[in-house]
Amino acid sequence: VEWFEAKVNEIAEAVGGGSCHSFEHDWFDQLLFEAGRDRGVIENRAEALMDRNQGYGANGPVRASKNGGYLADSYDVSDEMLDTLTNWTFGDRRENYPWSLLVLIYNMAGPKITDVPASSAAYGGRDAKFVVHF
Q: Which of these, 33, 1, 35, 48, lies nearest to 20 by C-alpha position?
């Protein structure tokens, strides 16, 4: 931890100042804090993090959302993948919570990506054919 804090301080000084500090609570308490526990937007219990009707999304101008992204390594899409995408998109909708929906499927392959040497940059999706974002 000391090495990490020293590196953070070194970087902060190099860009004009800053500091590194620690908290007196554990990581899960920090998660609840960042989710709004101290401002009353989420209950002070672990299960509240799984309730999309709590938190800033539910109490702000936009409702909570579930987001994700998956890389596909082949253009040969299985029925299972299509069934899973259909279920994620339309399957478990609770009518008492309003939903917005956005599914993006876009190509990732091509020379602008594949011609860049793998050792030149940290890019985990280099071999993916397409991406599904939801």
A: 1
